[in-house]
Design brief:
two-stranded antiparallel ribbon; 2 helices; about 270 residues; mainly beta
Length: about 270
């Protein structure tokens, strides 16, 4: 869930808010509250060594800029998300997780370097509901379903740095690095009457490197051109020798932007310790 939430923060932009598409047309990114609604799915087919799974994640991120100083841009952010994970071809194990986080994003920390550097920090509460099928020869079906409900508190911090350098008038080199660290404390809980788990702490670190090329082209589109008026047929012109006139209206030109991005390198690694 953390990777999806981090993706919704619109990191790597000098604007202290989400993309314009997520806002009212009357808002400006630098001065108004913003929001992002996101979702993703993942799945894996079963093999001789791996179980199948099917997962989904949905969330909402809301932020508002806060004026700290002329050189420090900060957004206060709230996030809520819901994730579902089904494990096994017959969904022998199911986990539902709900997460609520509050925190802040510091934007454009190094404007003079040519890098768009953002940092973030969050504290949150996660709740989990799970059920799974276990074998039990005392049951008529040979198995039964055990359930569990537990929760944890989490701290998440990270940094994201993006770089863009023009190669030609229409071609840019783009690259970036990112890293995050989370620490979650999960309380003790039991699964029905058979299994119990002690309280534990889970620490996860992740990082990534990206590089690519971005092609941008701006093409004019003439919406309106001058057109003649007062034209007459040849016969009418002989009877009425009025000179032909033309009404000239300034052309209206719209700019159409085309952006094509090519990823050359994308490396991500994650380490977890419980």
């Amino acid at each position: 869930m953390n990777s999806s939430m981090i993706g919704s923060l619109s990191l790597g932009s000098s604007n202290s808010a989400a993309p314009v598409e997520a806002m009212s047309f009357a808002q400006t990114p630098q001065n108004n509250a913003w929001f992002n609604i996101y979702g993703d799915t993942s799945d894996r087919s079963a093999s001789t060594t791996k179980l199948a799974f099917d997962g989904s994640n949905r969330g909402l991120t809301i932020g508002t800029p806060v004026a700290i100083s002329d050189t420090l841009n900060l957004d206060l952010v709230f996030n809520a998300s819901n994730a579902n994970l089904d494990i096994g071809s017959a969904k022998e194990q199911q986990i539902t997780a709900k997460s609520y986080n509050v925190g802040a994003v510091l934007r454009d920390l190094a404007p003079s370097t040519g890098w768009a550097v953002d940092a973030f920090g969050f504290v949150g509460r996660n709740s989990y509901d799970g059920k799974r099928k276990v074998m039990n020869n005392q049951e008529a079906t040979g198995s039964e379903t055990v359930t569990a409900a537990y929760s944890g508190s989490e701290v998440l911090v990270g940094v994201d740095a993006q770089y863009s350098n023009p190669v030609t008038d229409t071609l840019n080199f783009i690259g970036g690095v990112n890293a995050s660290l989370s620490n979650e404390k999960i309380g003790a809980y039991s699964e029905s009457k058979y299994y119990s788990w002690d309280a534990r702490t889970m620490t996860q670190a992740s990082g990534g490197i990206t590089a690519g090329l971005e092609h941008q082209q701006r093409r004019p589109n003439n919406l309106c051109k001058p057109w003649p008026t007062g034209q007459f047929t040849a016969a009418a012109a002989r009877q009425r020798p009025t000179p032909t006139t033309a009404l000239r209206v300034p052309s209206l030109t719209a700019q159409w932007d085309t952006t094509i991005a090519l990823s050359l390198l994308a490396l991500t690694t994650q380490v977890a310790r419980a």
